Amino acid sequence: MLMGYSLRRATQHMHKLSLSEAADREQVPKGCNVIMFSGGRDSTLAALRSHQTDPLVLVTIAAPHLIGLDLVRRRLGELSQILPSTTLWIVVRQPNELATDTSFYEQTCLPCHHAYVVVGSAVAAAVKARTLTFGYVGYQNVWPEQTPLAINSLRNVLEKYGIELALPVQDIASRDDAIAALDRLGIHSGSLEQKCIRQVTNVELDPDRLRSQVELWESAIGKSLAALDQIAIEVLEVARLGAFND
């Protein structure tokens, strides 16, 4: 299981919150589902599918290379018409220090997803969640972090720390299918997510390099989770979904 953890929230008067204080103050139901939420089509559908069985905590990453947090807020306005108004949204600054060596990473999305897993696991520990959800889809299964190899590795390392990996939209086979699913729900079918300015420089990995990178990724994530209480997580914004219902 994940160890105790300190959560720092950016407010007018910066102060530290313990995990239990954060969870108690926000009144997060035990056994909730932590959704790594970009506001894009896939994580939106992941949230909509997941809320039918579990209360949700939506977690959005903020970083200098991610542009357009207001787009995510627009998506939250749409979801406020469907999801419970008490659903919690947390914005977390992407941590740079992950308590392990990360110099081995090539220019792909794997290093950022390492940080996302750390943030999601920290939030899960804080709110005593049993599930961490990503919006990985079938039509992006050639992206390094969404390949079957990487998914198996991520599932294995999370299981060691008592967290179940959930991929509720992995069956979506095409972008058109994702758009159609949003249209049926009356949700804007555009990708209302932050744009990554790093992604254009990503490299393609051959099978051997992919396997090597994923093996190192799994090991590094495990080391980060083992030292989770030593990693600084800065919470920039906390809101209930009802705040976006205008």
Report what the structure shows.
By secondary structure, this protein is an alpha/beta fold. The chain has one domain (6-241): Rossmann fold (3-Layer(aba) Sandwich), CATH 3.40.50. Helix content is 36%, strand content 17%. It contains 7 helices and 10 strands. The chain has helices at residues 19-26, 41-50, 69-79, 110-127, 148-159, 175-184, 207-226, and strands at 6-9, 15-18, 33-36, 56-62, 66-67, 88-93, 131-133, 164-166, 195-196, 233-240. The protein has an 8-stranded mixed beta sheet, with helices on both faces. It has a two-stranded antiparallel ribbon with strand order 5-9. Helix 5 (148-159) links the parallel strand 7 and strand 8. Helix 4 packs parallel to helix 7 and helix 5 (148-159) packs parallel to helix 7. The longest helix has 20 residues, at 207-226. It is globular. The termini are far apart. The relative contact order is 0.23. The model is unreliable at 3-15 (pLDDT under 50).
Number of domains: 1
**Highest-level CATH class:** Alpha Beta
Q: What is the name of the CATH superfamily? A: HUPs
Please state how the strands of the largest beta sheet are arranged side by side.
2-1-10-6-4-3-7-8
Give the topology.
Layout: E1 6-9, E2 15-18, H1 19-26, E3 33-36, H2 41-50, E4 56-62, E5 66-67, H3 69-79, E6 88-93, H4 110-127, E7 131-133, H5 148-159, E8 164-166, H6 175-184, E9 195-196, H7 207-226, E10 233-240
Parallel strand pairs: 1-10, 3-4, 3-7, 4-6, 7-8
Antiparallel strand pairs: 1-2, 5-9, 6-10
Helix pairs in contact: 4-7, 5-7
